[in-house]
Amino acid sequence: MKKLSIGMLLLLLIPTTLHALEWAYPFVVLDGRVYEVTDEQVNQSLIGQSIGEVTTQADDRTGKYYGNGSNYYPVGTKYFKVEGVDISEAIAVEEQGTYMKAEFVQRVPLHWRNIVYYLTPLLFLTGLIITYRIREKVKKKYQNSLSI
Predict the structure, then answer these.
(1) How many whole angstroms from its chain centre is CA 1?
(2) Cys-Cys with 72: which of 7, 26, 61, 105 at CB 3.0–4.6 Å?
(3) Residues 103 and 35 sit within 8 Å (Cβ to Cβ)
(4) DSSP bridge partners of 83
(5) What CATH number did the domain enclosing 90 receive?
(6) Which N-terminal stretch is annotated as signal sequence (predicted)?
(7) 23 vs 61, 70, 71, 111, CA distance in Å?
(8) 143 within some domain
(9) 3-state DSSP call for residue 91?
(10) pLDDT tens, 21-65?
(11) SS3 call for 46
């Protein structure tokens, strides 16, 4: 009886399901804006300058993403401005020599890595200022001690 109970308990610990997320549509993220990639191709004559690229992949299990990510396109896929269309409305995504239209859907939910990206230079500058002030105080105390 004891062996059977332990065996049943161990069977409950074995994971039996696989969790995977199925995305509703392919998307790309550019500077905090999510764009849904449509089936509509953009004429090459309307393609403007490069405005970014995919830098991270979205997590298929949790659905989380940050930075200029995508759930479909690999890292390095380029984004382009479409001439005559504001970037806040639509962009073009390069896909094997063709350009697919991506329409703005929503702003990106806040993610801690996005905050770190913007705070790092600020923290570095603050550290430099504090170090400089401490150095000046120590220097002034040293000069005062020499003059006595």
Answers:
(1) 53
(2) 26
(3) yes
(4) none
(5) 2.170.150
(6) 1-20
(7) 10, 11, 8, 19
(8) yes
(9) strand
(10) 567 788 898 888 899 999 999 988 899 998 989 988 887 777 777
(11) helix
Distance, C-alpha 32 to centroid of its chain: 8
68-123 pLDDT, tens per residue? 888 888 898 999 999 999 988 999 999 888 999 999 998 876 666 667 777 888 88
Q: Tell me which residue range forms the domain holding 136.
A: 110-148
Structural domain contains residue 30: yes
Question: How far is residue 75's CA from residue 53's CA, in Å, rounded to a whole number?
Answer: 7
Evaluate whether 27 touches 37 at the Cβ level (below 8 Å).
Answer: yes
Taking the complete model, does pTM exceed 0.90, yes or no?
no
83/26 Cα distance (integer angstroms): 23
Q: Are strands 98-107 and 69-70 parallel, antiparallel or unpaired?
A: unpaired
Dihedral angle at the C-alpha atoms of 34, 39, 42, 47, nearest 10 degrees? Answer: 30
User: The tokens of 7 are what?
Assistant: 């065996």
- Helices assigned H by DSSP within the chain: 2-13, 112-147
pLDDT of residue 79: 93
